[in-house]
Amino acid sequence: MKIAMLSPFEESVPPLKYGGTELVIYNLTEQLVKMGHEVVLLATGDSKTSANLEITFPEAIRLNGNAQNINLRNTIKFIGIGRILDYLNKNNFDIVHNHIGWRMLFFEKLFNFPMVTTLHGPLDIDYQQMVYDEYKNSNYISISLNQRKPMPHINFVANVYNGIEIEKFQQNYNPQNYFAFLGRMSPEKGPLQAIEIAKKAGVKLIMAAKVDTVDQKFFDEEISHLIDGEQIQFIGEVNHGEKVDFLKNAKALIAPIQWEEPFGLFFTEAMICGTPVIAMKRGSVPEIIIDKETGFICESVNEAAEKIKDIQSIDRKKCYEHVRDNFSSEKMMEGYVGAYEKVLGVKK
Description:
By secondary structure, the protein is an alpha/beta fold. It is built from 11 helices and 13 strands.
């Protein structure tokens, strides 16, 4: 199959540090190439891939000073889409795999091959819902069944869970004396609640997280004064190697999400290291974490703080085995190939 893989422009593929979507694209692309498919990855010039790379921007636009302005960032995104359309109209593919989101839907009729769109974000944003309603017959792929709930009527051709490269992680069954928070310093990721849980339970919390431009005010006003450098520590963004060491040595990942998390790659990244997850019962959590087996699914901050006392009851090896068997990049690739074949009408 000849596949055009469309990546967002904010980060490189794979991302240097934080960037869940770009990491998923990298893992998928590498597996497709390994299986003999011809893939062209349309991404920023600082990307690394075994596929053919078609450069949209010289480097991740997050590094561009203009992109710190939200309006300019949106303008840059449409410039990037224009470059993608120009390329697609000059080349032939069996299928286009869109990871950029709703902005590409306006233009899918301008090229002569089908497109599938993986929805990496929530479906409860009103202005985006207008677009998905207008293009409800386009080909969509969800990354969890819970993600579909706000818009069950649009044309979902498959549900494919995100996958990770198992061999790039290490396991540790004798953790150090701290708990981890990983992700973005955004209200929806629950950093405030993670600190509250750690303080209620009297445990050490180390936070490795990205502070994006849109979250800077929240971090400055709500979080920074709670970081004392002792019980609550903040180490900023981490690269892959640092992330593996950080996760595998933690007693558990505290992930008190405050939104309908579409997937949550950090859940699987923790568990593949043997590290259980303490999370709120929202979004994809019940689909990814097995309560009382690979972590604890909680209803409140108080419950999460109580569960910290029981963390040693979780078999860390089961955490690893659960992800190995259900959330590998190979399993993800198989799901996407099945979706491509369905859209193309390939008979098995």
